[in-house]
Write a structure and sequence with these properties.
With 504 residues, the chain is an alpha+beta fold. The protein is built from 13 helices and eight strands. 58% of the residues lie in helices and 11% in strands. The strands form two sheets. Strands 1-2-3-5-4 form a five-stranded mixed β-sheet, with helices on one face. A three-stranded antiparallel β-sheet has the order 6-7-8, with no helix packed on it.
């Protein structure tokens, strides 16, 4: 997807700055008891935060929190609450990693707790700070993270679509090259074989005693010219074929029996042993090419030698062997070996194996073992599909993180709240045994060791009025977890004058 233009980014930052400055102007209006210094400082700070928010997304959020905490330990201020929400969202939207944000959230909570203890206030404002942190900062930050991951997935989709278009163009080019390779292979298979048979016929005429010396010499020149034409054809085919291309898989126009008959009619001494099997698909085409390559190599490199083609069926396997006896150049494979390399690839694609080499006593043998059914090819997943799957997994992982992080924070907040509540309540808990030892008339100094460290600050509703004529009454919890009953101790002149369990 296209990037936002610089002009639009500047316009967005300007509008954001003006919007965030409105609460500062309203809260710090000189007519409401504020000062122009507060107005100027707040607007300037927000302007600087907006200016650096793209490069350092967490800095504006940290500055806004630092400006809010001195004004309110609960982190909620009318002047900067909107800025906290906006910068929290932008931090999640623009930041790559989450670790820095988590450290910032923890730091704000720790600083709030420290300020609470330093000012000597209760923990109530700190719990309000944690709630404001979760709702005004963490929640917008999570929304920003979600929007960022969604945009990343969409952008990855567009990038992959563009890459797929380029890959399709590259595939089309490869298909054209592959078609040229197939045509080149067909030319080699057909013309090379025919030229080899022409050389065989010319070789027969060259040694025919019924022809005169001139005719025999012409036949010899024809045989050599056919052999040279075959070599030049092979060189041309090597240029046309792309490097590492698979062997062509075009279907043959004739059966193995017809191929052997045609070679025999051309003067090649060839015999066929065994029934010709009917193999489907690539296996049948590979069998035809093995026999054709064996006959061509024998005619080219062992002229005058006998050739034996043997076919044997063994269950789900078919074995084809083409062997020629010793002759001129016998035992030497095709020139350069490229024909046998392509043939080996064709046999491999059909699920078989190919072996070749000299045989004892002279000659050369070509053997192929082919299955009746070629194994099904398993297409590899396209690169674009794999990358899209990785992008989806990455987005899914980030979304899961965006879910468990707030849940973990809420769970930690709940456990912390419960722990602090129990701890606070335990500090005002008067044990029943200690209460039973208290006697009316005792001085406060005599019973202070049996009393909790703190008395209740907030009394439960529905308690009866205090007795008259007392200086003060102190209330303590009778149980740790329940508000009632409570113990009431009333003092006059530093001595205990009444003790009650309310209600009890």
């Amino acid at each position: 997807m296209p990037e936002t233009s610089p002009a639009r980014r500047r316009l967005f930052d300007l509008v954001l700055w003006l919007l965030l400055s409105v609460p500062v102007l309203l809260r710090s209006d000189p007519n409401d008891g504020g000062s122009w210094f507060q107005v100027a400082a707040g607007v300037t700070v927000l302007g600087g935060c907006v200016a650096v928010s793209r490069r350092w997304p967490l800095l504006p959020l940290a500055v806004t929190c630092a400006a809010s905490l001195p004004a309110s330990l609960e982190l909620f201020t009318p002047s900067y609450s909107l800025a906290l929400v906006a910068f929290g969202y932008l931090a999640g939207r623009r930041q790559d990693h989450t670790r820095g944000s988590l450290w910032l959230f923890g730091g704000v909570a720790a600083v709030g707790l420290l300020l609470t203890r330093l000012t000597g206030t209760s923990l109530g404002p700190w719990f309000t700070l944690l709630l404001a942190l979760a709702l005004a900062i963490v929640a917008p930050w999570l929304v920003g993270r979600y929007v960022r991951q969604y945009d990343r997935l969409v952008r990855s989709g567009w990038e992959l679509a563009d890459r797929m278009e380029r890959e399709q163009a590259a595939v089309a080019d490869r298909e054209r090259l592959r078609e040229r390779s197939r045509i080149a292979g067909d030319m080699h298979d057909s013309l090379g074989h025919d030229l080899a048979l022409i050389a065989v016929r010319a070789g027969v005429l060259e040694v025919d005693p019924g022809l005169g010396p001139e005719q025999q010499r012409a036949a010899g020149e024809l045989r050599r010219a056919a052999a040279e034409a075959t070599e030049r054809l092979r060189d041309v085919i090597g240029v046309l074929r792309e490097e590492g291309a698979a062997a062509p898989t075009a279907p043959a126009d004739e059966t193995v029996g017809e191929l052997v008959d045609r070679a025999r009619a051309s003067g090649l001494d060839v015999t066929l042993a065994g029934p010709v099997p009917e193999l489907p698909g690539m296996a049948g085409r590979a069998l035809h090419r093995v026999v054709q390559e064996g006959l061509t190599n024998a005619a080219r490199h062992a002229p005058g030698a006998s050739v034996a083609v043997e076919l044997r069926e063994d269950g789900e396997r078919v074995t084809a062997r083409v062997a020629n006896g010793p002759g001129a150049g016998a035992g030497r494979p095709a020139s350069g070996g490229s024909g046998l390399v392509g043939l080996d690839e064709r046999v491999r694609l059909a699920g078989g194996t190919l072996t070749h080499g000299p045989v004892p006593g002279g000659g050369f043998a070509l053997t192929a073992v082919l299955p009746r059914r070629a194994p099904a090819a398993v297409p590899a997943a396209p690169t674009s599909a794999r990358e899209l799957d990785r992008a989806r997994r990455r987005v899914r992982k980030d979304l899961v993180r965006a879910i468990w992080i707030p849940l973990a924070l809420l769970a930690a907040l709940a456990v912390l709240t419960a722990g602090v509540a129990v701890w606070s309540q335990s500090r005002s808990y008067l044990e029943p045994d200690n209460y039973a030892r208290l006697l009316v008339g005792q001085a406060y100094a005599e019973i202070v060791d049996d009393l909790p460290e703190h008395a209740l600050e907030r009394l439960p509703a529905g308690l009866p009025p205090e007795p008259g004529g007392v200086d003060e009454c102190r209330y303590y919890r009778a149980t740790v977890f329940a508000e009632l009953p409570v113990y009431r101790l009333c003092f006059t002149g530093g001595r205990l004058v009444a003790r009650d369990e309310l209600p009890g």
